[in-house]
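Please decode residue identities from the backbone states below.
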């Protein structure tokens, strides 16, 4: 059963991410790349994020980042 999918916009067109199919290493690497890109952890980024001021890809990044963190937490609870 597929748990989560998010369609992302990119220059290449829409793509699909199946989060429960990602390895834990892939999830950690993607989370770290967002933390480096935005210079802060997700919790702080959420507090300063504004839908009115965000560029389109920043909203997509936020959704992807949130689901990655949720998936990591879900896996940790199952361990």
């Amino acid at each position: 059963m597929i748990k989560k999918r998010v369609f992302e916009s990119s220059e290449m067109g829409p793509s699909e991410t199946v989060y429960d199919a990602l390895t834990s290493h892939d999830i950690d690497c993607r989370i770290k790349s967002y933390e480096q890109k935005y210079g802060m952890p997700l919790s702080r980024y959420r507090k300063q994020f504004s839908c009115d001021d965000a560029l389109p890809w920043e909203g997509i990044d936020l959704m992807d980042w949130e689901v990655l963190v949720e998936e990591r937490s879900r896996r940790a609870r199952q361990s």
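Observation: The longest helix spans residues 56-78.
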